[in-house]
Amino acid sequence: MADLRVNIAGVNFKNPVIAASGTFAFGEEYAAFLDVSALGGIALKALTPEIRPGNPPIRIAETPSGILNSVGLQNPGVDAFISGILPRIRRFDTVKIANVAGRTEEDYYTVIEKLNDTEIDMFELNVSCPNVKQGGVTFGTDPNSMAAIVAGAKARAKKPLIVKLTPNVTNIALMAKTAEDAGADAVSLVNTFTAMAINAKTRRPVLANVTGGLSGPAIKPIALRMVHEVYRAVSIPIIGMGGIMTGEDAAEFLLAGASALMVGTATVAEPDAMIRILGELNKFLDENSAATARELTGALEY
Amino acid sequence: MADLRVNIAGVNFKNPVIAASGTFAFGEEYAAFLDVSALGGIALKALTPEIRPGNPPIRIAETPSGILNSVGLQNPGVDAFISGILPRIRRFDTVKIANVAGRTEEDYYTVIEKLNDTEIDMFELNVSCPNVKQGGVTFGTDPNSMAAIVAGAKARAKKPLIVKLTPNVTNIALMAKTAEDAGADAVSLVNTFTAMAINAKTRRPVLANVTGGLSGPAIKPIALRMVHEVYRAVSIPIIGMGGIMTGEDAAEFLLAGASALMVGTATVAEPDAMIRILGELNKFLDENSAATARELTGALEY
Amino acid sequence: MIKKHDICRVASLEPLAKDTYALTLKVNGDMLKYFRPGQFAHIRLPHAGEHLLRRPISVNTIDREAETMRFAFLIQGEGTRRLSQCRPGDELDILAPLGQGFRVKESHQKIWLVGGGIGIAPLLSLRDTVPGREYTAFLGYKSREYAYERKEFEGFCKAVHVTSDDGSIGEKNFVTEALRRELEKEKPDVILSCGPLPMFRSLKRVWEEDGRDVETQVSMEQHMGCGTGGCYTCTCMVAGAMKRVCMDGPVFDIREVKL
Amino acid sequence: MIKKHDICRVASLEPLAKDTYALTLKVNGDMLKYFRPGQFAHIRLPHAGEHLLRRPISVNTIDREAETMRFAFLIQGEGTRRLSQCRPGDELDILAPLGQGFRVKESHQKIWLVGGGIGIAPLLSLRDTVPGREYTAFLGYKSREYAYERKEFEGFCKAVHVTSDDGSIGEKNFVTEALRRELEKEKPDVILSCGPLPMFRSLKRVWEEDGRDVETQVSMEQHMGCGTGGCYTCTCMVAGAMKRVCMDGPVFDIREVKL
Ligand SMILES: Cc1cc2nc3c(=O)[nH]c(=O)nc-3n(C[C@H](O)[C@H](O)[C@H](O)COP(=O)(O)OP(=O)(O)OC[C@H]3O[C@@H](n4cnc5c(N)ncnc54)[C@H](O)[C@@H]3O)c2cc1C
Ligand SMILES: Cc1cc2nc3c(=O)[nH]c(=O)nc-3n(C[C@H](O)[C@H](O)[C@H](O)COP(=O)(O)OP(=O)(O)OC[C@H]3O[C@@H](n4cnc5c(N)ncnc54)[C@H](O)[C@@H]3O)c2cc1C
Ligand SMILES: Cc1cc2nc3c(=O)[nH]c(=O)nc-3n(C[C@H](O)[C@H](O)[C@H](O)COP(=O)(O)O)c2cc1C
Ligand SMILES: Cc1cc2nc3c(=O)[nH]c(=O)nc-3n(C[C@H](O)[C@H](O)[C@H](O)COP(=O)(O)O)c2cc1C
Ligand code: FES
Ligand code: FES
User: Which end of chain B is least crowded, N or C, by CB within 10 Å?
Assistant: First the structure.
């Protein structure tokens, strides 16, 4: 039984497995399938200042070893979250991360300020959602916008700030470094790759939104490379993700440089996947004589 | 029996299925498995001015629905190609495309000038190989370098010039437009995504080169999106590729905007895959009442 | 915790009609205990490999004693094709039961079932779960070759109205037109319906014109990810809000759901 | 065109030793016609799904009359695990025969076979393809549990020297040390060898010290893509040039190949 505890930007996690934003709703739904308090943390569904209906359906497509989604940040708005949902998820004894989104810089700041005095433990700045036409992803692809919004968020946030990076860039190490220099306490990567599926018979895109975000094992090799590159570029902790389906996948991300992990698509495929992954990671550590999960971080030999 | 003929930059292809560079060597090896002359064309293994040994092995790894390679442009050099190999592949009645690579701009020009008076039909400027440390990929990620090398190559080339784009960029439409404006007669995309595989037990990268290029069905949704984006940005023809394994995959790339297709990983998995894909594409066109392959190009409805 | 995620053994797989199969699984007691008609299972494909998504299939019949659940499905693509190749003894990873199902109240004594094509399948589960009501069924098939389970409906319904697109079985008519004819004569306490979207659109017209006071529940389809409410990919518009078909549905009130 | 790519039926699958299996396939005549010892097949996994790459496995024995090819393999990972679950009647997509194999000349009358672990398997194909020579075998196993096919070698070899790492079968020694001892007594016309890289490194030392004049051929392993010479991923350094194991090899001269 290895020691799975990790610490990210001063926050203690009982283990490094965190639900990825947008794939675990606000956690409640999963109480029927697993002990939510057994998870290291949960990144909640993205929150914006106002209620958002998201994109029209069809919103999901299956691709080889991957899935495409175009949910488009559907959420009840930060106020409804605070009054209606937060009191119900208080009972989960796990780190709660608010995924913060919006169209404008002000949107992000509004969400942060409203959540500052709640029991949310951390913020995850979602500057990388490919499913919204304006805002979102542009912050994540341009270093100047990135610097501005991270600095602005950091100045307002009373909790540690994670910046979630998009993989749709030429140089992700540069974007990570920009976030670090602007005050980010940690980075998480990767969000989804902008992609599309076509139904050749109908000659139409499968998704109503035309494009969506690709996640799952298909992208794991690119995500691993990016975590590895970012690890060499920054000194803040990294939360790695992209196609983690097994404990061994989790170990690979730790070795590449991650201090903790997020799991998204695996949960979509199998509601209790994170519990299985935790068990497998534990077993992997034992079998490979690692006493802690922490010692794997960046321990890749090459 | 649909009409499969296509024309790219004035060159006639009997059908749109072309062997992707680096996966079909110089074609000879495949005479044991298929009628090479039945293919629309073959993009030959990358050529550099001098002989190159490539990267050390292990050079290949399997990933979910993908493969990673780090061959690193191993080739006999353009002179040995012209004297030793070209005379032997003359017999194939198919469009022969030379994939041109190098470290410096001069390297590319040398290869082009040496091949100008041979029976090579087209050039494919490989500014996108992720497996060489210098050169190569930098030309493909920076618009200024791209413009310079494409203009230089175009000024020297006596055959139509295809520019092969890397997907490892923030804005592939911009890179395609840059190539078009600098004189490219066509673009081909995508080359492989920089990626890595880790053996968690040994704590080492699987590839000796640490990173390699990801290809195969895993990347198809991203490749399709990029072809679609480039189609809206340029008016030169597009050769689409990335995970084409079936005739229906081929049709999807045509619909997204490609005029012809390249097939790489499918051949690695199954030597005669291109013949199967051709048959399936033909059948698909017949069953979906398309009289020609050409009419699918860009015919996506949305 | 109720065991809603389990590996279940295939008890049998039989052809029902053209491209239509019945799959019977041996399931655990928890899956049957709280089962309500109209709920579905989310089935991982055999040898799933590169296929990450499960396939949602409504429960067709249940047998609490034998501890089995049966599904009827139509081959649409790779997923349903693979399911049609299952053999007894194979194992399937399933999530069940999911969704809210039909909301049948005490006051619903006279129940009319309106099904189109493979949408007929979930309606049969009423027989096993809500016995002792007066049922009438309206079954619309494409043609005789695709007709399945008519006999089963005849076994528990007072009347069964069969229509087909080409008249090769029952009357040549839209199933919703057969419904209209009967609605003009009498009204049930509730209409429970499942079928393709175009059928629901006709149903809505018939309902507006001849059945406005009759509570009508429709079971919607949507492409799904998790099936468990986590990913918000399976939405449809209900009373102005984006609802999850998997968790808030699949059954919605025809007055509220945008068709 | 010779039919080198075909769907072949599994005739049998038997355990040979711990984690070691023999897979026999019914193959087409073309695959056997030009077969040479040391060649391999490139096998697509059953239900390959997300696994795009084939697995290279040397031919262990052939039977021209029954039109079968047999492979012996050791479970290493997912691919070989799946092969070990094949059942008679299953179909496998294979490419065979590939590579150059051992180059046995008329002058090679006295042939010594040196195999380590699963590398012993391809050496048995000499029995079926180059009969009438004087064979001596040196077989190195990890331990008794992993020992397989010793009897078969005894059936056609003048002498069989068995070693194991722990002495649980044969003498406790490196197989290359057993070879050294015999080389000090007499020299064969050729040594044909297959085994892991560390064994080849010892073999090279033994060869340098005691067998410099003896032609020695080693069968190399490398991670492969196509198996057919197209992708250049399977290289090793031979006489200063990067050669393809799949097409130029897998057998190379010990003087030339970089170990
Ligand atoms: C709540 C619910 C209950 C259902 N009950 C039944 C049933 O009892 N019997 C039956 O035959 N079918 C039923 N369906 C439809 C069934 O889920 C689809 O036919 C099936 O998913 C198609 O998968 P495929 O791989 O064969 O087809 P493909 O077209 O290859 O599927 C590709 C992808 O699209 C999705 N998809 C395609 N069509 C549909 C659809 N109509 N609804 C949802 N997802 C779709 C698939 O799940 C898959 O992810 C139900 C759908 C829902 C939402
Ligand atoms: C010419 C040749 C002949 C061979 N003959 C035999 C034989 O007769 N019997 C036998 O048991 N094994 C043989 N091998 C080794 C066998 O190919 C590997 O053990 C097998 O590919 C491992 O696959 P896996 O999925 O079980 O293991 P994994 O480790 O999960 O494989 C992952 C990937 O690495 C590749 N790989 C891993 N190990 C090797 C290796 N040693 N050589 C080549 N590729 C590897 C696999 O092909 C796969 O692509 C031979 C290899 C070569 C090159
Ligand atoms: C259905 C779905 C919805 C998502 N919604 C969000 C979101 O709201 N905010 C966000 O930052 N990331 C979102 N993501 C991205 C995931 O959090 C994660 O970054 C990505 O899926 C890669 O991890 P995976 O391969 O484990 O899924 C979403 C992903 C999926 C599949
Ligand atoms: C083994 C291998 C070698 C490759 N070598 C080259 C090369 O020399 N030049 C080049 O432009 N692309 C090279 N590529 C990239 C392919 O031509 C193609 O762009 C890519 O693999 C995507 O297509 P696919 O998914 O069909 O393989 C190589 C790909 C593979 C798999
Ligand atoms: S399918 Fe995930 S919320 Fe319905
Ligand atoms: S495996 Fe492709 S060249 Fe050898």
Answer: N
Residue listed under structure tokens 């073999």: D203
pLDDT at A133 over 60: no
Are C80 and C152 within one domain?
Answer: no
Q: Is the pLDDT of residue B141 over 60?
A: yes
Q: How far is C47 from chain B (nearest CA, A)?
A: 14
- Domain presence at residue C151: yes
Sign (positive or negative) of CA dihedral A287, A293, A294, A298: positive
Q: Is the pLDDT of residue A158 over 90?
A: yes
> Interface partners of D (3+ CB pairs, < 8 Å)?
A, B, C
D209 and D126 co-located in one domain: yes
Size of interface B-C (CB pairs under 8 A): 3
* Residue of D221, D222, D224 to test ligand 2 pocket, by largest number of atoms within 8 Å of CB: D221
Which residues of B does the annotation mark as catalytic? 129
Tally of domains in chain D: 2
For residue D168, being part of any structural domain is answered with yes
- A29 CA to chain C: closest CA distance, Å? 6
Query: What CATH number did the domain enclosing C131 receive?
Result: 3.40.50.80
Within an 8 Å CB–CB cutoff, is residue C47 touching chain D? Answer: yes
Q: How many angstroms separate the CA atoms of C87 and C48, rounded?
A: 16
Print the domain residue range for C158. Answer: 110-219
Does D206 lie in the same domain as D175? yes
Q: Choose from D228, D236, D247 for mutation: most chain B CBs within 10 A.
A: D228
Reading phi first (left if > 0) and then psi (alpha if -120 to 50, else beta), residue D18 is in: beta
- Crossing angle between the packed helical segments B172-181 and B220-233, to the nearest 10 degrees: 40
Count CB pairs under 8 A between chains B and D: 97
Residues D79 and D117 in one domain: no
Query: Which pLDDT band holds residue A132 (cuts at 50, 70, 90)?
Result: low
Instruction: Kindly give the interhelix angle for B143-156 and B105-115, rounded to the nearest 10 degrees.
Output: 20
Judgement on whether residues C149 and C198 belong to the same structural domain of the protein: yes
Which residues of A are known binding-site members for FMN? 21, 45-46, 99, 126, 164, 190, 216, 242-243, 264-265
Q: What is the pLDDT of residues A10-58, one digit of tens each?
A: 999 999 999 999 999 999 999 999 999 999 999 999 999 999 999 999 9
Run of H or E residues at A138: helix A137-141
Report pLDDT for B128.
78
Contacts of B25 in chain D (CB under 8 A): 229-232
Specify if C171 maps to a domain. yes
* Same-domain check for residues D143 and D82: no
Using a CB–CB cut-off of 8 Å, the residues of B that contact D are 22-25, 29-30, 32-34, 45, 53-54, 57-62, 64-67, 69, 71, 74, 216-217, 265, 267-272
Mark whether D158 and D131 lie in a shared domain. Answer: yes
CATH number of residue D49's parent domain: 2.40.30.10
Asked if residues D32 and D68 have their Cβ atoms less than 8 Å apart, the reply is no
Q: Measured at the alpha carbon of residue B105, what is the angle toward residues B101 and B111, in degrees to the nearest 5?
A: 45
Overall pTM > 0.95: yes
Residue D52's closest chain C neighbor by CA?
C50
**pLDDT band for position D211 (50/70/90)?**
confident
Is C122 in the same domain as C54?
Answer: no
Which ranges of chain C does DSSP label H, i.e. alpha helix?
A: 29-33, 78-83, 125-129, 150-156, 175-185, 197-210
- H or E element in which residue B41 lies: strand B41-43
